[in-house]
Design brief:
The structure is a single chain. The chain is α/β, with parallel strands linked by helices. It has two domains: 114 residues, Response regulator (Rossmann fold, 3-Layer(aba) Sandwich); 77 residues, Winged helix-like DNA-binding domain superfamily/Winged helix DNA-binding domain (Arc Repressor Mutant, subunit A), CATH 1.10.10. The protein is built from nine helices and six strands, in the order βαββαβαβαβααααα. A six-stranded parallel β-sheet has the order 2-1-3-4-5-6. Strand 1, helix 1 and strand 2 form a beta-alpha-beta unit. The model has no long low-confidence stretch (mean pLDDT 82).
Length: 207
């Protein structure tokens, strides 16, 4: 089933990469007031909301009840990312992200995962990793993984990127991605945030 996209932006701001990276796009230049109705087209829908549009957090809360929402930011930063996640966004991306990143973000959130661009995600995971306590007992999740998968999981949980994991373990980035796919499947999780929670003894929420 194809993905449909609704983008709510501010007046006179429409980067060409949005239409290059996404198919079946409806674009609304939102000036405030009542949230526009969702399109009636059949198929899965992803809503994209520019963080400089009026009442963007209200829009995230409104649409997030019905479908995954990705917040688009002209200047990504951690405080805004936190506000977006608290409002119910499933993704957070730079306004000038390339078409491939836009497509990846849409695909991820449509499958229930959280998507944040790698540099911002690494900063977030680093903060989260330092804030969570170390588990007191050997975690059960390790028993489900191979030795190499445990090494990858432990590094990813510190907030480093796939490339940094590859360099530390002397493997390719593609191999890191393959290990992560296997790790997520074996542990029954969807993304890196769930992984860091699990490695610190927290039970990830499906919400």
């Amino acid at each position: 089933m194809n993905l449909n996209h609704l983008i709510l932006t501010e007046p006179n701001f429409l980067p060409p990469n949005w239409q290059q990276g996404l198919n079946e796009v409806s674009i609304i230049q939102f000036t405030g007031g009542q949230p526009p109705d969702l399109p009636s087209d059949e198929g899965r829908l992803v809503v994209w909301i520019l963080s400089s549009a009026p009442d963007w957090e209200m829009l995230v809360q409104h649409y997030g009840v019905h479908c995954p929402v990705i917040v688009i930011s002209k200047m990504p930063n951690l405080p805004e990312l936190q506000r977006a996640l608290e409002a119910g966004a499933r993704g957070y991306i730079e306004a000038l992200a390339n078409p491939v990143q836009l497509e990846q973000a849409a695909s991820s959130v449509s499958q229930g995962a959280l998507w944040i661009a790698a540099p911002m995600l690494s900063r977030l995971l680093g903060i989260l990793s330092n804030a969570l306590p170390e588990p007191h007992n050997p975690p059960e999740w390790q028993e489900k993984l191979s030795k190499r998968e445990r090494q990858v999981a432990e590094l990813v949980a510190t907030g480093v990127t796939n490339r940094e994991v590859a360099e530390k373990l002397h493997i390719t980035v593609r191999t890191v991605k393959e290990h992560l796919t296997s790790i997520f499947a074996k542990l029954g999780i969807q993304d890196r945030l769930h992984l860091i929670l699990l490695t610190r003894g927290e039970r990830p929420s499906d919400n």
